[in-house]
UniProtKB/TrEMBL annotation, chain A:
PANTHER family: GLYCINE--TRNA LIGASE, CHLOROPLASTIC_MITOCHONDRIAL 2, GLYCYL-TRNA SYNTHETASE. Keywords: Aminoacyl-tRNA synthetase, ATP-binding, Cytoplasm, Ligase, Nucleotide-binding, Protein biosynthesis. It holds the Pfam family tRNA_synt_2f. HAMAP family: Gly_tRNA_synth_beta. This is Glycine--tRNA ligase beta subunit. Tetramer of two alpha and two beta subunits. Its EC number is 6.1.1.14. It catalyses: tRNA(Gly) + glycine + ATP = glycyl-tRNA(Gly) + AMP + diphosphate. The gene is glyS.
Automatic annotation (TrEMBL), chain B:
Tetramer of two alpha and two beta subunits. It comes from Ancylobacter crimeensis. InterPro entries: aa-tRNA-synth_II/BPL/LPL, Gly-tRNA-synth_heterodimer, Gly-tRNA_ligase_asu. Its main location: cytoplasm. Belongs to the class-II aminoacyl-tRNA synthetase family. The keyword Cell wall biogenesis/degradation does not apply. GO terms for molecular function: glycine-tRNA ligase activity. It catalyses: tRNA(Gly) + glycine + ATP = glycyl-tRNA(Gly) + AMP + diphosphate. It holds the Pfam family tRNA-synt_2e. It is an enzyme of class 6 (ligase). Its EC number is 6.1.1.14. It comes from the Bacteria. This is Glycine--tRNA ligase alpha subunit.
Length: 751, 319
């Protein structure tokens, strides 16, 4: 079976776009082929900085022939119908059609069309130009003379040549001829930019790979990565050092070289005063080099590994020397930043440093970073008792936590935010809790990141995330669909994980309402003139909350405005709280589902009112899940659902609720008496256990109802003739529903 | 390879001026007009009308020149070995971009003594954008042994107009390149004239005092009320010249370049104000927008001139 080889040779493709481009070319070409009846055995894409290539293995030489039967009009139909049929079937005259008959339709024409499949190269030559013209590069450009005209070819960088061959393994393949904006396909490519010369003629994949290798190009991206990693480790090992692996950097490097040559350089050991993370960030971000660790100390060594694209004639000495110079200059900068920060921190008190945040906008509608830090500090203090932290320490840690954002090091390397806070806090002799919180309050950064456990860190981390959520909720910037620009889902999940993994009791409703309502405690100040609402509102955060709900241009007095703001503010706070709580509920469901909990159980618990304590919700779900695993649980669930179903139907019919207490005097059958008694016994026990948050215990008490419920359904007719009797029995069913609803809404449970 | 016939003081790896002369000669050989720096303060070589304006319109254009560039905020009182508030860029503009632009660029590196068999030269993604000029392009920063030595851009848009055809722009950071080929760690140690001993003039001899003086000026003393006024005046003058330059049916423009000078002026004044720290974050954006509006209007005017490719000579239809 023949194979296809396609190579699009161009100027340097950005490293970050290469993996996506390889996947796109594979999918676009193979999909187009399959769509045209050309099924293949395998396909592999290749990408280097200068080429995007695809090999499709095991294609047929031509499309399969197509046989088609097309029914036409009846014999003697109007000429227009016959002409239409001939045209659609591609027939010259009726002589080419045959006549068939069936009992219903009588005699009618049939066209039998035999279409020969076209040779595969022809099909390829037809689909490729369009794929190339509309290739989904994240950013593309025009170039050269052709760009004078509209509609010129776009590519990621100028496209230089196209290689396209097709043929079986044993024969000389043919060049698939096509043309894209004047660029004709051929069987020629080029090797490494500096290590090879002239054109290379290529027949097929194996030939292409071998000749490129000889021309100093490793076409396979994964192989380039393997080479870099293995050589880097070897070099490190030879020096008794350990490579600090970095998958992201490795990916990027694989996109910057066609012929990786791994070299080692050094820098002055005095730079090791600078924290390891800063050295690493400097060397990685600016130079795309790996750093090395000394296994004896666990700290960085004054060595780095660089990956060049050249086998230099001097063995790489000039390249190493050049890179060392640049790294020296960069580390000098980093050291300068580090020294400056330490000097500043030592000489300028925190309060004064915080003042600088007044000029930094956090969000246009949410005030400055300064405002935000103050809010977080206030909230951290309020949360301190919940997490068991010292109030003053939590507040102080929150005030400190963002202070590194104004430092030189973080300004240069945003990725070390938090971490620098920790370093600087220690240098300033602050308590270790504050240093830890500076780093840990950003956690958890994602679903796999660890959650802070230290009380002070927790207080600040919770305050930070809750403030973010409340703020963006207040200005109506909630996530929609795939859009979540302020990472609010991540913030909510962070809160959820911190609460659950630390077993925190956090009554969210009250807390959130307090935050949303915080604006109301601030009295709008009367400005020098004017009584209208516009002029009395200041633009601080809390007042902005008021503003978002109450700004109008009507001329009302200050007092009226204040009253209205208060009223609307209260309504707004409760609405926003409910909405944000529902968001927490959704995120909790997603989280529990991902950790394997049944979504119907989560729904069943959330159906109850006032479920704002995440820890209790989860405890209920867990208890419920265990309960439903038992025989009693399953049967009781069935009984409860049966009761609820009957009630639903009857209550609808009667138009009244049967929720009143059953009257024991009206019990007739032994079974209903037994159930009534069991219920009367169980209800206070369940209530007591629920009050003690003993969900297992409450469910055990409910389990005791299984036998009387089962017996009741077996022996007692609910819809008795006498209305009083029927109502009393319905009330008994309602009692079952009520008792179980103290735990969860059983009707929402599946099974 | 460096021209072996050069006397040692003229070699690009021995003197700053030798480096400039080698580039001038290289690009002259490739058919560029060798222009002199534009006689106004600009932030980068791109502002020279030979790039900004000539990149617009259909007419072919090849030029190369040195452009002193001023970045008031980058002043470090002469204390930083790499940062300057005044430095030189070498600028090449080729329209339409030739198919072998990368090879030409590499040959120019060879001509100034960067042996491509010894040094690791790489094209690393870097998309260029100038918010004040309303311009953007795709290209790379060119690395030599891990150091960025040039910027390589295919202009896609300038002054808000699509480039048709696209021009290729090369910008060499001359001081950095010179430091590299001379093997010097501090910019002020660069050998300027290629002489040794008593006759030697270093970059510091020429520019250190200026860096100190201008840093004081840029950060501490530049007269902000004058500058604010100058910005307004330049903006107003640009609008005035632009308006006056249009012919009756607004098909031809007669004063695109004087108007563009005012746009350059406004841009530099803005940079000075920015360095003085009198522009807040929100204001900053609006200043940038105001300059961009001027640049766009100048671009539109330029496209209505002969050099901008408008069909008839300027005078012909200007009644």
């Amino acid at each position: 079976m023949p194979d296809l080889l396609l190579e699009l040779f161009c100027e340097e493709i950005p490293a970050r776009m290469q993996p996506g481009a390889a996947e796109a070319i594979r999918k676009l070409v193979t999909d187009a082929l399959v769509e045209r009846g050309l099924v293949y055995e395998g396909a592999k894409a290749f990408v280097t900085p200068r080429r995007l290539a695809l090999a499709v293995h095991g294609l047929p030489a031509a499309q399969p022939d197509r046989h088609e039967e097309r029914k036409g009009p009846r014999v003697g139909a109007p000429q227009a119908a016959i002409d239409g049929f001939l045209k659609a079937a591609g027939l010259a005259s009726l002589d080419q059609a045959s006549v068939e008959s069936d009992p219903k339709k009588g005699e009618f024409y049939v066209a039998r069309i035999h279409k020969h499949g076209r040779p595969t190269p022809e099909v390829i030559a037809e689909v490729l130009p369009e794929i190339i013209r509309s290739f989904p590069w994240p950013k593309s450009m025009r170039w050269g003379k052709a760009s004078a005209k509209p509609g010129a070819l776009r590519w990621v960088r100028p496209l230089r040549s196209i290689l396209c061959t097709f043929g079986p393994e044993t024969e000389e393949p043919e060049v698939v001829r096509f043309d894209v904006d004047g660029l004709a396909s051929g069987d020629v490519t080029r090797g490494h930019r500096f290590l090879s010369e002239g054109d290379i003629r290529v027949r097929r994949l194996d030939d292409w790979l071998t000749k490129l290798e000889a021309a100093k190009v490793v076409a396979d991206r994964e192989r380039r990565k393997d080479i870099v990693l293995a050589d880097a480790k070897d070099l490190a090992l030879a020096q008794g050092l350990e490579l600090v692996e970095d998958a992201g950097l490795l990916d990027e490097i694989a996109g910057l070289v066609e012929w990786p040559v791994v070299l080692m350089g050094a820098f002055d050991a005095s730079f090791l005063d600078v924290p390891d993370e800063v050295i690493r960030a400097t060397i990685r971000a600016n130079q795309k080099c790996f750093v090395l660790k000394d296994p004896a100390t666990g700290r960085l060594a004054n060595r780095f590994v660089l990956v060049s694209n050249l086998e230099a004639t001097d063995g790489g000495a000039a390249i190493v020397a050049g890179n060392e110079r640049v790294i020296r200059a960069r580390l000098s900068d980093a050291k300068f930043f580090w020294d400056t920060d330490r000097r500043t921190n030592a000489s300028v008190p925190l309060a004064e440093r915080l003042e600088k945040f007044r000029n930094v906008t956090f969000h246009e509608k949410l005030g400055s970073q300064y405002d935000r830090i103050q809010r977080i500090a206030e909230l951290a203090r309020a949360l301190a008792p919940v997490v068991g932290a010292d109030l003053a320490l939590a507040e102080q840690a929150a005030l400190y936590a963002k202070s590194d954002l104004r430092t030189e090091v973080v300004g240069e390397f945003p990725e070390v935010q938090g971490l620098m806070g920790r370093y600087y806090a220690r240098l300033e002799g602050l308590p270790e809790e504050i240093a830890a919180a500076a780093e840990e309050h950003y956690k958890p950064q994602g679903p796999t990141d660890t959650v802070p456990t230290a009380p002070v860190s927790l207080a600040v981390a919770l305050a930070d995330k809750i403030d973010t959520l409340v703020g963006f909720w207040a200005i109506d910037e909630k996530p929609t669909g795939s859009k979540d620009p302020f990472a609010l889902r991540r913030a909510a999940l962070g809160v959820i994980r911190m609460v659950l993994e630390n077993g925190l009791r956090l009554p969210l409703a009250e807390l959130l309402a307090g935050r949303f309502g915080a604006g109301l405690s601030v009295t709008a100040e009367r400005r020098r003139t004017g009584d209208s609402l516009d002029t009395v509102l200041d633009l601080s955060f809390e007042r902005r909350l008021i503003e978002t709900i109450a700004v109008g241009t009507r001329g009302i007095t200050y007092e009226q405005a204040q009253e209205e703001v208060k009223a609307r503010g209260t309504a707004f706070a409760s609405e926003a709280t409910a909405d944000l709580l529902a968001f927490f509920g959704d995120r909790l469901k997603v989280h529990l589902r991902e950790s394997g909990a049944r979504h119907d159980l989560v729904d069943a618990v959330f159906a109850l009112p006032d479920q704002d304590d995440l820890l209790l919700v989860v405890k209920r779900v867990e208890a419920l899940s265990r309960f439903l695993g038992t025989e009693d649980g399953k049967n009781l669930l069935a009984g409860t659902k049966r009761a609820a179903n009957i009630l639903r139907i009857e209550e609808k019919k009667d138009g009244v609720s049967h929720d009143g207490a059953p009257d024991p005097a009206l019990f007739v059958e032994a079974e209903e008496r037994a159930l009534g008694a069991a219920m009367a016994d169980a209800e206070p026990v369940i209530a007591a256990r629920l009050a003690a948050e003993d969900f297992e215990g409450a469910l055990a008490a409910i389990a005791a109802l299984r036998a009387p419920v089962d017996a009741f359904f077996e022996k007692v007719t609910v819809n008795a003739g006498a209305p009083a009797l029927r109502a009393n029995r319905l009330a008994l069913l309602a009692a079952i529903r009520r008792v179980t609803r103290a735990i969860a809404d059983f009707e929402r449970i599946e099974g | 390879m460096i021209d072996p016939t050069l006397p040692s003081h003229m070699r690009p790896d021995r003197s700053f001026q030798g480096l400039i002369l080698a580039l001038q000669r290289f690009w002259a050989d490739k058919g560029c007009v060798i222009l002199q720096p534009y006689d106004m303060e600009v932030g980068a070589g791109t502002f020279h009308p030979a790039t900004t304006l000539r990149a617009l319109g259909p007419l072919p254009w090849k030029a190369a020149y040195v452009q002193p560039s001023r970045r008031p905020k980058d002043g470090r009182y002469g204390e930083n070995p790499n940062r300057l508030q005044h430095y030189y860029q070498y600028q090449v503009i080729l329209k339409p971009s030739p198919p072998d632009l990368q090879e030409l660029y590499l040959a120019s590196l060879d001509a100034i003594g960067i042996d491509l068999k010894l040094h690791d030269v790489r094209f690393v993604e870097d998309d260029w954008e100038s918010p004040t000029l309303g311009a953007w392009g795709l290209g790379w920063e060119c690395w030599c042994d891990g150091m960025e030595v040039s910027q390589f851009t295919y202009f896609q848009q300038v002054a808000g107009f699509e480039c048709a055809p696209v021009a290729g722009e090369l910008t060499y950071g001359l001081e950095r390149l010179a430091m590299y080929v001379q093997g010097v760690e501090n910019v002020y140690d660069l050998n300027f004239n290629g002489r040794e001993g008593e006759d030697k003039v270093s970059y510091g001899d020429v520019f250190l005092q200026a860096e100190q003086e201008y840093s004081r000026h840029n950060f501490e003393h530049a007269d902000t009320s004058m500058l604010l006024e100058q910005f307004r005046m330049a903006e107003k003058a640009a609008a005035q010249y632009l308006e006056a330059g249009w012919n009756a049916d607004r098909t031809r423009h007669l004063m695109a370049q004087p108007a563009y000078d005012q746009c350059i002026k406004a841009s530099h004044v803005f940079n000075l104000l920015d360095a003085r720290g009198v522009i807040s974050v929100t204001e900053r954006q609006s200043y940038i927008l105001r300059v961009r509006e001027l640049a766009k209007a100048c671009g539109a005017a330029w496209l209505a001139t002969a050099a901008g490719g408008a069909g008839a000579p300027c005078g012909a239809s200007a009644a």
